[in-house]
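Sample entry (392 residues):
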Amino acid sequence: MVSWQEQKSKKLPQNPLSLLVNRQRAWVEVDLDALGHNVCTLKSWLNSETKLMAVVKADAYGHGALTVAQTVLAHGADSLAIATLAEGVELRNSQITAPILILGAINAVEDIQAVAAWDLEATICNSEQAVVFNRTLARLGKFLTVHLKLDTGMSRLGTDWQSAVAFVSLVKSLPHLKIASVYSHFSTADEDDRTIMDLQHQRFQTAIAKLKTAGFTPPLVHLANSAATLSDRSTHYDMVRVGLALYGLYPAAHLTQVLKLKPVLQVKAKITQVKIIPTGEGVSYGRKFITQKATKIAVVGIGYADGVPRNLSNRLQAIVTGQFASQIGSITMDQLMLRVDHLPQVQPGDIVTLIGQQNQLKITADDWANKLETISWEILCGFKHRLPRIFV
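Predicted structure, serialized as tokens:
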């Protein structure tokens, strides 16, 4: 295994936007060193025969799909996974040549044609879909690599695991489909209670065993997401599909000690004005915050249109010049306000960290998620394209 220290020379050139920080009101900062570290750390956790499929759907969880894809492939990822046809086309159009699996369902004939034209790999969820794929490909005179999805308890895409033999036998009979793998997806791998996870795993094992008894050994078998990859090596099989952990976040608190991952993303913005608000004045729409004394505030150039949830109003913390500052009033579309009475030197142009670290202070996507009673995946995917991604 090549160490991360030996891999550092492979770091890709910085995005030109990194030269334009001084012109930005707000941005997402993506640490490619941390991303490379995470790939190498995850690879070292796997058996040498187990492949790593990097999940870069949803613009790589808000990190920037193209640069993330280039970086993870340069540091050992074997293939990529995305959710939609458009995401796959974007990567292929940017000269990404690695295998790319579309995790979502493709049904329309014109979409099947595009999957073949762009040399993408498709998920086949049921027999009817497989027949349509084969018929379309036959007309084109093309063949396509496909991955067969079994539903072991997620109750989303896939054929019921108990029908695996009939499903796979049908797909095997279709000459224009080349089976690359059989896979499934956990619904509760991030939970402490393993009852359902173990049940799904048992169902998957049973289905694979029945396929082998029927004379078919899948070229690849994969089941583990980030949580299962970290929590149970028996689920690794031939390949793992890792998303959240690539980006340095843990799917659950009880998994934080398994591997030393580094957060990849920070969200930053600049102060645009500093002013004193008199006693008794309201701050922002709806006057949800009324000053009890003359209050020094800093206006920051980022808002809910950029991905800072309005429901964090009056609950958000940010880091300014190495100290925490509380957000006050309603978060607006493009701006928010911080209370900065305790920061005498604060001025326009100072950088505010909303997610990330300054000195020893840290704010995480999990902090936001916990306040909002949601998950860190949703927080990461919420940062809009209006925020440039700056790769460092």
